[in-house]
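>> received
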Amino acid sequence: MVECPRSEEELQKREAIGVIRASRFVRKFARSHKGISIETIKEIHREIFKDAWPDIAGKYRTENLEITDSSHVPPHHSKINDLMNEREVELQKKLQALDKAEGIIRGKNVSMAKVHQTVERVIHLAAWLHYSITCVHPFRDGNGRTARLAANLILERYGLIGISIKVEKENKNRYRQALAQIDHADDYKPLVSLIYEGLKERYDGVAVKQYGAKQSS
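>> returned
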């Protein structure tokens, strides 16, 4: 049995270690080619919190939440199971539609236009999964961290690199506005742009044809 943190500092330290552990889980899972599902999302959350807050690790919330500095109101906790089951059905359809994506992105004899088109589809799926988690807000805490790692799982599964979407200081407002734009107008462009920027930052200076990355001058 895990002993509860004795201070806020210890809690934050355990959560930080949990994010690192969850990032490693994501990379390993992406390479394993095991099927991605909503259960995988719960496993990511479990990795983050199993030492910091075991009572909530990998478990859907049983209470209602308000999000600080956001107009988004998460659904009632009693609806979470049904909503996540709906996301599961949609996720499997989207994954099936991307069945050949990794081969295209990593392929040596694939046109650049085809690569770009496939990368775009992968990024849109990552954005959709990211938003799906933040919209339902299924967990008591750590929904944003779980959503960002889940998006990385999609990117890494199909041959791209996991990114870091910056959510500190001025970037926090831009990130929240990107999610709000989906809430209000079903417009994924701002969130997709954030993911593209994260990828560009990771690939900057890397001459890798299959990703369409440009070498910096």
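>> The two ends are 54 Å apart (CA to CA).
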